[in-house]
Each structure stands twice: as C-alpha cells, then as structure tokens.
Design goal:
The protein starts with a helix and ends with a helix. It has 21 helices and no strands. With about 425 residues, the protein is mostly helical. It has one domain (about 55-425). It is about 75% helix and about 0% strand.
C-alpha cells in the first residue's frame, strides 16, 4: 500500500464516518505490515506519542470545562452578557457570541462551549421567535471562538508538535478571538435587521452590577490561567490543573451547584473525552512515523517550490487546502498529521510559527462547522433537533465572517503577534 493509497483510504474512512482512531490506525498497520516493519514499532510509537508533560493540560482543560457547565457558570455568564449586549437588534444572538467569548477563557474547547450555551440559549431564542436553525447556527459559530481565545486545547497540541511556546500561542489568540466575535456580531445584526428579530430592553447599571457580582468568581479563571503563565508561576500544564481545581471549588463551594453525586459523572465524562483525544494523538504518532519515513514533507516542499518567492499565493493555497480538508477530517487528526509536514514549508516561507499556529487552528475550527465531519455541527444538530440541510442553509453567513477573519490574520501578522511580542518580547 503506497503512501498515496494509505492517505486515500484514511480520508475515505473519515468521510464515511469511521471512528477517527480506526481511520488513522488500520491503514497504518496494513502499510507497515506490507513494508515488513515489525509491528512492535506501532506500540512503541503510540506510547512515545503521548509521553509528554504538556499533553497533561488536555484532560485538565476538559475537566475545567465540565466543572463550568455543571457548576452553573454558563447560566451566570449568559446573564452577564445579556446585560451588556441584549439590547442590540438580535439580542439573544449577540448574547450567545459574547457569552462564548467569555467562556472561551475557561474551557479551551469549541464543543464544550457550544454545547453549554446551546442547551441554555437555543430554547430561549425559540421562545423569542428566532428561527431554530439560525439559533443553532449562531451557537455553533460562536463556539469556535473557544479554542482561539486562551486557554486552548488545540494550541497545546500545536505547541507540543511544533516545539513552540504555548504561552505565546495563548496570547496570540486574543485579538483574533475578539475579531471573530465582532465579525459574527456584525453578521447577526444584518440578519436580525432583515428578519426583524427581537431585542431586550436596555439593562440598568444595577442589573449589570448584580450580574457581574454573580459571575465574578467565574471571571477570575481566565486571569488565573494567563496571569499564572505570564508571571512564571505556572507552566501551561500546571495552569490547566489549577483551572480544573478552581472550577471544582467554585461549583462546589461558591455556587453550590456541584454536589458529591455529580463528581463521578463529571470524572467519567472527563476520562472518556481525554481518552478519545489522547488515543487519537497516539494513533497519529504512528502515521507521522510513516510520513517521516517516506519523506512526505520533502515531497510537499517540492510541490510548493514554485511558490517559494510568492508568499501571498503560498499562504492562500495552504488555507484553501485546510478549508477543504476540514470538510472531511476531524480537527485533532488534521492538527496532528499535517503540522509536522507543513512546518518546514512555513519556516521556509519565513512565517512565524506562532502566527501559523493561530491561523491554522482558526482554519480547523471553521472545519468543525462544515459537513460531513463537522464535530460542533453534529453536537448542535443533536441538541436542536434540526436537519443538516437546515443547519447548512443558516451557517453560511457565519462561515463568510469567520473566513474573513482567517484571511485578515493570515495576511496581517501583527494581529496575532502584537500581544505576545509586547508581553513576552520578540521571539528569537
């Protein structure tokens, strides 16, 4: 089985809904067997692939997200967002976006954020006469902000693979995440004006102050994570652990919405989600070994050689490639497989790795909204009980907005690099 056939079989597996791990691992095993490579190498590569301290941040951030959703944080942040932007035309849709921007500083997961706000806000938007497919679409699009504004599980993975500072990646996502929120709000405003969606009465300062006090404990979490990393008190992994502990403390002792009875279900969900991600990481390590062994990276460099002096065109082709792959591949698999392949090309083009990591992850987040493999899309379709066709009809204006941000940060690096360079100095 040549490498091209291996990749083709893998893509077919993704497109027909075969579990990601099987799509990665089975073709790799067949290939290695045909090449006469001892299969104990598979176990060795899988073990080495997950034997990394930075990867411990993943289960901790997943745990922090679970504590947030179970502990009443989501509802309080929605209330706070409502007092700030609820009076704008399309009120609850704007609330959805702002709430996700705030929640993004806690979980680092698009699925967790979209599911948390979706369960609360989709029924509320229906009650206020929003079209259900539109409500589902804006919840999904807003959820993609989660992995861009720090903390971010994809940034942890990218930093691990690319040997790049996770702290710089976290800081690099702040401005792009804010731009995503602004572009989505502009889109919502235009659609809401055309469809005459309702808005809330402007909140008083007293109502804002009450909502702010209610959510103040939750708002400390992003400060804890970023402050700890920037001050040197925590590594990103240790910050993730502190976020999980803090989320448990707030949910258990402050808001008192997490009970001892909830701990086992929370732990079960965290273990399952973490196992899925890390199993994919382990399976991807085998495929990375094959791609390195067959010098696929060199072949890619040769393919892009005509564009070596045309950086604008090369970046355009890279983005278009990943937008296409995002339609048929799961985000984590894309990140793990293609990062080591594209790094030599990116270095050759003179693109900063932090800059590449941010627009790369944003590209992958857009893929979570597109059929047939969009993970966020499937979660929200399941929550809202709508068809994929209904979702697709409503999501395209949001996709246009997000792709606009993607190309903006791709071609204007200071939008990504300004804050990291300001707070951590220019990378050497």
């Amino acid at each position: 089985m040549p490498v091209l056939q291996l990749i083709t079989v893998m893509l077919v597996g993704f497109s027909i809904g075969l579990p990601v791990v099987y799509s990665l691992l089975v073709p790799s095993l067949i290939y290695l067997y045909q090449q006469g490579v001892p299969l104990f190498v598979v176990a060795q590569k899988m073990a080495n692939g997950v034997e990394s301290f930075p990867l411990l941040a993943i289960p901790f951030f997943i745990a922090a997200g679970e504590m947030m959703n179970t502990g009443g944080v989501t509802r309080r942040l929605v209330s706070l967002a409502s007092t700030v932007v609820g009076h704008i035309t399309g009120g609850l849709a704007h609330v959805t976006i702002v709430a996700n921007m705030i929640m993004a500083g806690m979980s680092g997961s698009a699925i967790a954020d979209a599911a948390g706000t979706g369960r609360v806000l989709i029924p509320d938007m229906q009650q206020e006469k929003f079209d259900k497919p539109f409500a589902a679409a804006i919840v999904s699009a807003a959820g993609t902000i989660g992995p861009i504004i720090p903390p971010s599980i994809p940034f942890v993975l990218f930093g691990f693979i690319a040997s790049t500072s996770v702290g710089r990646l976290f800081l690099g996502g702040i401005i792009p995440g804010i731009l995503m929120g602004l572009f989505l709000m502009i889109t919502v405003y235009i659609v809401a004006k055309r469809r005459h969606y309702p808005r809330h009465a402007r909140s008083t300062f007293r109502e804002f102050w009450v909502a702010l006090k209610e959510s103040s404990w939750a708002l400390v979490m992003p400060l804890l994570i970023l402050g700890g990393i920037l001050s040197g008190v925590f590594t990103p992994t240790e910050a993730a652990g502190m976020a999980a502990i803090y989320g448990l403390f707030v949910g258990f002792f402050i808001y008192k919405e997490i009970t001892p009875r909830d701990l086992l279900p929370i732990a079960t969900r965290v273990v399952r989600s973490s196992a899925v991600v890390l199993f994919i990481v382990a399976a991807a390590a085998v495929l990375q070994y094959i791609l390195t062994r067959e010098m696929v990276g060199d072949a890619l460099l040769a393919l892009f050689k005509p564009f070596a002096g045309r950086r604008v065109m090369a970046l355009l082709l890279i983005n278009l490639l990943f937008l296409a792959l995002g339609c048929v591949m799961e985000t984590t698999a894309l990140l793990l497989l293609f990062t080591p392949i594209f790094l030599p090309l990116i270095d050759g083009l003179g693109v900063d790795r932090v800059h590449f990591g941010v627009f790369y992850v944003l590209n992958l987040m857009i893929g979570t909204l597109t059929p047939p493999v969009g993970t966020v899309m499937y979660v929200i379709i399941n929550i809202s009980k709508i068809s994929m066709m209904e979702f697709t009809r409503e999501i395209w204006p949001m996709l246009v907005a997000l792709i606009g941000v993607l190309f903006l940060i791709t071609y204007y690096p200071p939008l990504v690099l300004y804050i990291p360079n300001l707070l951590m100095g220019v990378a050497k």
